[in-house]
Design goal:
With 447 residues, this protein is of the alpha/beta class. The protein is built from 17 helices and 13 strands.
Length: 447
């Protein structure tokens, strides 16, 4: 089988890249129906897709506040530009390695294709940890990082954005250095400040988009979120603005978490308090329970082995919005046993392979990450359009376009799943829809 041959090749070439292998394996297995067409093997599409166009690794030497030189590793992996310039975030986190960046970049190819906007797939980052660093240290690191990266990016070449550990502050420092180095002001970054080329709704986009996608899935089954209890993991941008939009549509979000633990608030998460703790002062989620009597805090050390405490809370809909593989097979069974009818992935590949299979077998509403969380990169694409026209759009205009894009992603995925005989399988539908757009462009453009 064509897909198996390509997977065997990856396993042999990249034996320790577990996350990358998982992402490729999940995608290729779902492509089985469309790969019956011999044209894709004839043009070696899979072999070309799983091999990045280029992987750029570089040393980042910077000085801390004590005057000592620190050294980190930086990278940018440009995967595929068949339908537009490379597009994908930068992640600053100690866990960053080649496998994680490759899995993220690979997923980005198909996520970007689903948005209907002209963007290729890439990802990058560093094992630098912004936590505990002063603003001056973060600025010096970002400037040192950009001293190398600037050679490889551009508004029509490769357009990075933020990700874990890279927010508005880091984007500002990175863009400022880029502008100085190239003596040019262009839209080479998205997630910029509103006063210098950023877009309204960008901060909210991934979370809002997840809820819009959930509404489309549920609406197709004559269901909705109004009055329903929802569990959310994470407490960053995605989780916070998922919670905000859930309240707007009448749902009841009751959980939030970080790497140290989780809170369950039976009265519903106090959004203002959560924003104050996380966005205002970068605190820990346990502080939430210190301010709210209705909240229960569970330390991550007390989670049952192989589980995430967030998913033990009975809910109608679950929004995993923290990180990869945060929802295990055991968690999936717990959610299903407790009557969960909808899982919407706000993070990239947050469900383990087994967990995803269980959701599909149960035929609940299951929105895979590359479809459900595409709202963030969609608004990044809209930011690029605003930069090109040198004219900013209103919140209402961008939000309306975001909603339209999420609706189109759902409809395209659902119609493709229907075409291949598995109408409730949006993993199949979104993967094939994204793949066909990119693969057909590659064939058109030759090798």
């Amino acid at each position: 089988m064509y897909a198996t041959q390509v997977l065997d090749r990856i396993k042999k070439a990249c034996p320790h890249q577990r996350e990358f292998y998982q992402a490729v394996s999940e995608l290729l297995h779902s492509l089985a129906p469309v790969l019956k067409d011999p044209i894709y093997q004839k043009h070696a599409i899979l072999e070309r897709l799983v091999e990045p166009d280029r992987e750029i690794f570089f040393r980042v030497a910077w000085m801390d506040d004590t005057g000592r030189i620190q050294v980190n590793r930086g990278c940018r992996i440009e995967f595929n530009a068949a339908i537009g310039p490379y597009k994908g975030g930068l992640r600053f986190h100690p866990s960053v390695n080649e496998s994680i960046i490759k899995f993220l970049g690979f997923e980005q190819i198909f996520k970007n294709a689903l948005t209907t906007l002209n963007m290729g797939g890439a990802k990058g980052g560093s094992d630098f940890d912004p936590k505990g660093k002063s603003d001056a240290e973060i600025m010096r690191f970002c400037q040192a990082f950009m001293d190398e990266l600037y050679r490889h990016i551009g508004a029509l070449t490769d357009v990075p954005a933020g990700d874990i550990g890279v927010g508005a502050r880091e984007i500002g420092y990175l863009f400022g250095r880029y502008k100085k180095l190239v003596n040019r002001f262009d839209g080479v970054f998205t997630g910029k400040g509103l006063d210098w080329g950023g877009s309204l709704v960008r901060k909210e986009a991934t979370g809002y988009g997840c809820v819009y996608f959930a509404q489309e899935m549920l609406g197709a089954r004559k269901e909705d979120l109004a009055g329903k209890v929802c569990s959310i993991s994470g407490s960053g941008n995605v989780a916070i603005y998922t919670i905000e939009k859930l309240y707007e549509v009448g749902a009841i979000p009751v959980t939030a978490s970080d790497s140290k633990g989780m809170v369950y608030d039976k009265e519903g998460i106090d959004l203002d308090l959560l924003k104050e703790i996380k966005e205002g002062r970068g605190g820990r989620i346990e502080e939430y329970a210190q301010h709210k009597r209705s909240a229960e805090y569970t330390d991550a050390k007390n989670y049952k082995s192989g589980t995430n405490g967030v998913w033990s809370v009975p809910c109608f809909a679950a929004f995993p919005s923290a990180t990869q593989n945060e929802l295990s097979e055991i968690d999936a069974q717990t959610l299903l046993n407790n009557g969960c009818k909808c899982v919407v992935e706000g993070a990239n590949m947050p469900s383990s392979t087994k967990a995803a299979e269980m959701f599909l077998q149960a035929k609940i509403c299951y929105g895979p990450g590359k479809a459900a969380n595409a709202g963030g990169v969609a608004v990044s694409g809209l930011e690029m359009a605003q930069n090109a026209s040198m004219y900013p759009w209103s919140f209402e205009v961008v939000d309306r376009q975001l909603r339209t894009i999420m609706k189109e992603i759902f409809e395209n995925s659902a119609q493709t799943a229907q075409e291949f005989g598995d109408p409730t399988n949006l993993v199949l539908g979104s993967n094939i829809a994204g793949f066909r757009k990119v693969a057909d462009a590659m064939i058109d453009q030759g090798y």
